[in-house]
Amino acid sequence: MSSLRDKFYLASGYAAGFCIALIMVVILVQIVGRIFGFIIPSAENVSGYALAASTFFGLAYTFHQGGHIRVTLVIQRFSGRTRFGQELAVLIFGFGLACYMTFYCWHMVWESYIFEEVSHGYIPIPLWIPQIPVGLGMLALNIAILDDLIAVLRKRTPSYQQHEDEINLEEV
Predict the structure, then answer these.
(1) Given 3-state DSSP classes, what are the helix, strand and coil percentages for the chain, each rounded to the nearest 5?
(2) I need a labelling partner for 86 at 20 to 30 A (CA). Which of 9, 40, 75, 96 fits?
(3) Tripartite ATP-independent periplasmic transporters DctQ component domain: from which residue to which, for each copy (predicted)?
(4) ∠ CA(93), CA(133), CA(101), 5° rounding?
(5) What residue spans define the domains of the chain?
(6) What span, in angstroms and rounded, lies between the C-alpha atoms of 122 and 135?
(7) How far apart are CA 160 and CA 89, in angstroms?
(8) Taking Cα atoms as reference points, which of 57, 63, 66 lies closest to residue 11?
């Protein structure tokens, strides 16, 4: 089961990387197009949507890999029960915040679909289409936080802390 979760987080990271590559291709084609005298319609819009998608798809993978910034100056001084309580409180708060954001990301998708909102570029793209990756990325972050919350409740080391410990050992 752990392998399936790891593959899920890795797929989220690959999706983020694909969106970054898409941005590069769109901008490169746009540059070449300007040299040869043609434009790529809505290239800026597509690049912006891909940037949002890469940001949100990358959240779960980065969280799982311990890449998010944590203030460890105080945390590293805690041990035992105090550290457990702190980790639990932060994960519960983070999970609640992620759930709130996920709900409103999907609500935004739904409203864009219902009100038939479109982009204002050359090509009128229905906004709900590029908003779906934002909702999916937030949903993946929810799963990642819940995964580590359950690990802490079972008195196991959360995934982000395992990677932090690996990094700290490499620095020593």
Answers:
(1) 80, 0, 20
(2) 9
(3) 23-144
(4) 25
(5) 2-171
(6) 25
(7) 15
(8) 57
